[in-house]
Design brief:
10 helices; Rossmann fold; 14 strands; eight-stranded mixed sheet; globular; 2 domains; six-stranded parallel sheet; alpha/beta
Length: 341
């Protein structure tokens, strides 16, 4: 017999939560949106009213405890995640938690330990690039060793604009965190050192904000990753990743939307448009992410990024913020090696 339909509640109905609500309600098979919750009760009520049979629940912990909710998507601000994820673990409910797992390494580790104590995995982290078709093909190519060993990774992450409240530290914690996960995902190993450099800022930067930033990761195996994060490039949303291997290179994120490779007998071209924001660039990735989460939750599994991945990313970003302040390299200190991904 097939698994029963997954009844999903969503906590946090800002831009990301509302986008996920639409996705669960309209495009994820085997799942049904049944409830939403947000401190802005008017906004939660308005969103619920868009879909048949969806309730707005005032307290997010009441949503988690509700017997009519089988699984939870957490799209609330990061400071609320520890309490909400712990509640999901206590009630044994599969959870998709948007990044960050929490705001600091200690609280993220508490969630890793709480999940382990429960005896089964329940939490998937919202690192959607792992589900993007180009990044998935890039991972498969690297794992095949067709181009030899991965030597260097170059990441580019540019936003058209952000609010003035988006400070220098947020560029590390809320933007660079995706490059952190990409590096760990593609290399299959941990980041051991982070250095964040601050070039002369763009004239479009808010006062006191270091934008763009260039960071360098050193991987456990000795490889190097470079990252440019530019949150007010005034053009559009650009995310690319170039893998430099022993016998060729591959780029995910070229404008035409297919994995671009160069080898001794290959060629390439350039063309296309720059999407306006992340919801356009990674729409397919989000669809695939939510579908994979729903399918695995119905089977009692977790197939995407784990709480360990969330913990490791948080610790790396903590080191990145320390480097942002000091200008020097900072060692990443994880408590132990996590489970294989």
């Amino acid at each position: 017999m097939s698994e029963p339909e997954l009844r999903v509640g969503i906590i946090g109905v800002g831009m990301m939560g509302a986008d996920h609500a639409e996705r669960v309600a309209r495009r994820v098979s085997g799942a049904r949106l049944v409830a939403v919750s947000d401190p802005d009760t008017a906004r939660a009520g308005a969103l619920a009213a868009r879909f048949d049979g969806v309730r707005a629940i005032g307290d997010p912990l009441d949503l988690v405890a509700d017997d009519d909710v089988d699984a939870v998507v957490i799209a609330s601000p990061g400071f609320a995640h520890e309490e909400q994820v712990l509640a999901c673990l206590e009630h044994g409910k599969p959870t998709l938690c948007e990044k960050p797992l929490t705001m600091d390494g200690d609280s993220s580790l508490r969630l890793v330990e709480a999940e382990a104590a429960g005896g089964r995995p329940l939490v998937q982290l919202g690192f959607m690039r792992r589900f993007d078709p180009e990044y998935a093909r890039l991972k498969a190519l690297l794992d095949s060793q067709r181009f030899g060993r991965l030597l260097v990774l170059h990441n580019t992450h540019r936003n058209k604009d952000v609010p003035d409240s988006f400070r220098s530290e947020m560029i590390v914690r809320d933007s660079l965190v995706h490059e952190v996960d990409v590096a760990r995902f593609l290399f299959g190993e941990e980041i051991t050192e982070v250095t964040v450099y601050c070039p002369t800022p763009t004239s479009a930067a808010a006062e006191g904000v270091a934008d763009p930033q260039v960071s360098v990761f050193r991987m456990a195996g000795g490889a190097v990753v470079t990252n440019e994060v530019f949150v007010r490039n005034q053009v559009g949303y650009e995310v690319r990743c170039e893998a430099v291997c022993e016998r060729g290179t591959a780029i995910a994120g070229r404008p035409w939307g297919d994995l671009y490779t160069t080898t001794t007998d290959g060629g390439g071209a350039w063309g296309g448009t720059v999407p306006p924001d992340f919801t356009a660039r990674f729409a397919t990735a989000y669809d695939l992410e939510l579908q994979a989460w729903a399918d695995s939750a119905r089977r009692g599994e977790v197939v995407g990024p784990t709480t360990w991945d969330g913990y490791a990313a948080t610790v790396v970003c903590e080191a990145g913020m320390e480097s942002l302040a000091s200008g020097g390299p900072v060692t990443v200190r994880l408590v132990a090696r996590g489970p294989r991904r």
